[in-house]
Amino acid sequence: MHDEAHQQILLLLIIVFPLGGAMVNGLVGRYMPKSLVTLVGVGSVAVSLGLAVTTFIELYALSGHDLEHPALTYQFYEWFSLGLPGGKVVAINVRFLMDSLSGVMTLVVTGVGGLIHLYSVGYMGEDEGYPRFMSFLNLFMASMLILVLGSSLPVMFVGWEGVGLCSYLLIGFWYENRVYAAAGRKAFVVNRIGDFGVLVGMFILVGVAGSFEFVEINAAATNGQFRADFPFGIFGVMPSLATVACVFLFLGCTGKSAQIPLYVWLPDAMAGPTPVSALIHAATMVTAGVYLCCRLSPLFITSDVAMAIIAVTGTLTALLAASIAVVQREMKKILAYSTVSQLGFMFAAVGVGFFAAGFFHVFTHAFFKACLFLGAGSVMHAVHAHGDADIFKLGGLKKMLPITRWTFLASCLAIAGFPLTSGFFSKDEILLGAAAQIYRPDDSLQHAVGWFTLIGLTLAAVMTAFYMFRLYFLTFTGEYRSADQSGDHPYDAHPHESPPSMTIPLVVLGIGALFAGFLGLPHVLPITGTHLDEWSWWGHWMHSSVAGRPVPEEMHIVNLASGLAFGAMAIGISAAWMLYRNKSRDALAEKMPKRLFELAFDKWRIDELYGVTIVNPIKQVATVVGRADMTFVDALMTKLPSFNVREAGRIFARLQSGVVQMYGAVMIVGVVAVLAFFWAPHSHIEVTFEGNNVDLTTPLGLGYEYRWDANSDGEFETTWAEAPETSFAYQKADVRGVAVFIMNARSGVERRVDVGEDWVRLPIEAVAPAATLRRDDVGFEVRLDGEDLVFRRPDPPTLLAGSKELRLPLGKDGRLGPARVIARPVVEATVEVRNAFGNQRRATKEITLPFWIEEPPSHAVLTPRSHEVVR
Amino acid sequence: MISPGTILFVTTAIFAMVGGLITVSARRPLRAAIGLLVHIVSLAGMFLTLDAQLLAALQLLVYAGAVVVLFVFVIMLIGPASEVGAIQGRLASRALSLAVTIAIVLAVSTSLANFDRPWGAVSEDFGTVEGLGMAIYSEALVPFEVISITLLVAIVGAVAIARSRTE
Amino acid sequence: MGVGTYLALASVLFGIGAAGFLTRRNMLIQLMSIELMLNSVNVVLLAFNRVNPANHDGQVFAFFVIAVAAAEAAVGLAILIAYYRVKKTIDTDDASLLKY
Description:
A: 871 residues, alpha+beta, B: 167 residues, Four Helix Bundle (Hemerythrin (Met), subunit A)
């Protein structure tokens, strides 16, 4: 499958330019003039965009060649390799891949990112941290591009972590404010929880597929390698490998893409500057989760359970977030919850098998949500609001901020799903996917999920249209409520339109919000239209890299979906029109039951729930552990040693009595000791074995002379010489004793017994493991009889065991039950040492040779010794 | 065979030891000084058995004639305070030092006693004024000059330290 | 009388001097003990020189030992006098200012 890929080094450069820009601005940005910072920051992204377009064109050309998976790749280098159990070695390469999926995503990231960089020039230009901001933005671009262009899970994970890091850096950009800094930390920590899921999923995948590369994992999934059961089950149910892996990966997606349960960081993330919200928390980073699911779509499709979980979670998230957004007062907060809700839509699409549709929503959402955020930023910039803007203090801005107003309206129409806007096409397809599942009655799970998703998403769509237009009407229609200003930060009484660096991106994005959807327009266009994936440009394009469930052909399903989408939009917009157009009060809040309103306004108190159930217990454990550390570890590691040293010092200080005589006495004793050391020579023998030769050495001394008697027979083989070593070949006649070694291979116990003419008991544990012996078993005895060893059992445990004697000739190894028996000779060596003063010392050593002495064949042996008979 | 050298050696050895013992055990410092004198004179005699005539003379001149006299002068200068009194306090450490010293001495002396080297043959002027004088002035000339400076320094130093400071 | 006898005697004299130095409280007696030790060393030097009388090295050395011992006695006694002036005693048990 790799022969369809073509090497393209530009893929690497797409990443390198923003990375380089980040480093330049980060390291030396504050010494550069602002225009240079802008040039580096925006320019690097512009170059990256140009390269992305170039490579995309090449990819497009490639796709016309009828290949199954057209792609451009570039291998940078091999990072490291991993050995799997079973012997397989997996090489992890830093390698980039641009196929249809990542190609589009790269364009979105660099395009929308570039526009937002341009916007930041105007928005953040006056901030004193401007170079730092540009540096972080560039770093984020580079990380996101690594994430998107990575061809394997580890490389993607590098980007995944990188964007998490940049998210933290940028949310807490104004770090002197504790609240903002806390929001940054919250984002990072919650993300980390998700990252654990990605890692576990990654490991399961490599264990089954033997590779981290997406291409190979997807191929393995298509081949059915993931259908086997996971080794552990829950409640007696054994999930498949695919299910488990997908669930863990989805956990990571909930963290990165703000789904239940890990969405809580996204609303707080509005603490960051508005361009950050637009880029990271609307267009790119939060969609990384959807991207991951689409990347591994062949894998996800094989697990119905995982898909059901994803669909349900997405739908619930969409509903939950929409319900909160309906009652909020601040612009960015509403948009944040809107993002969470729309992400829920995307995951719901993934869950019902319409991966391409979900990704299409990513594409369109990037345009209109970025436009909405930048528009909100424009409004805040105009009224000089800090942090966020309360819509109940705004109103009538359509006269003062015309460009902002029209682009904002365009994006609101898109997100509500007004016909022919981009959101219309993408939302329609998602509902179509849900509807299609209803018509699969043979699969009860899919059927139920389909109903749930369809109804849930429709409700969410109603709320979406409602709260977005509530936001629009309260901000732009009616009269400017400048007379109501009170409190710390009154808004500017005369807001004016933003500079072109801010309005140009707004216009570009607004146009995209309106017209980008036509990419999803089906080729065949009867009046009611069909949304077959293969037959729209988008579906056709995505088909080569993203899998999916089949698109229904029946018109009644299509009509159902379209009707629901249209109805939802109509109801929502008209409700908002009636309640909020040209109004200034929150009519809904007044009509709702008070308790319900407060609960919804407080985000259903989910954060507080987490605080009580998770955060506080952890804090308490930390406190306890901290105290234990102070009491025990500190005392043990610091107070105890310091006490020891201090007291020992106190004792030794008594030596300093101040009396000279004591010092003199100590000196004398010391001097005499040193002299004594030199007076008498000392020695010991060390033995090394070289084959059958034995080398004896003794430590060297100044002026020493040595004399060796290697077999301790009283005759010295060498005379006084300065050689501290000698070697000797022992004869049979030198043997003074026999040592028997008993080794039990099973228990590893080895014992030595010196045998003589009398019976010696063998240590029983060396013969057999203690557990196998009877308590009254005393084991064996052995003695030396001439040239043989004789073994016998003195008290046989049973009468049947007999009292046989075993004879083993010396020099042969034998077996005694499970133990090995080896006999070795024992000899003795002597050395005499003399120093310059004439003092002499003798040292002896008993040596057990590690081999048996062979009788030299027929030679007459030297002098007969002791009682041994010489043969 | 008992030779005059032997008798001289034994006599001087005994007196040396006795003198030393008096020195270290006398309560009154003047008695100790006398003991030292006896010790030195007997050592001078012993030097004669070792054919070191000049040194024997120098021993008497310098040690007995100057050092002991110096000691006596100081005793006189200090007066009654020079007698410190019986040994008291730190008995354990004193006893220990004594015991260790005795042990070391016994060990060393017994092993040294067996040291066996024959006496060398001496020439006529070994140890005489000419012989030793020639050796000092030819081989050890520089140390000789240095030692004279050392003595000068010692004199000056002693005077400087022991001067009474009239404020 | 072999060399060994001289050496043994010298070690005994040295021991007497050392014992005196380590035991006595009287600073004067201590200084005298030092003289005893120096003398014993002289005996050893002369004895060995007598064993090898080819040159006068031992006697020359002993010569210098005597000279140095004299100088040292002078200076030591001067210090003693200065100390006495301050402390009004020559009891070394009181001289423990260096005590920890």
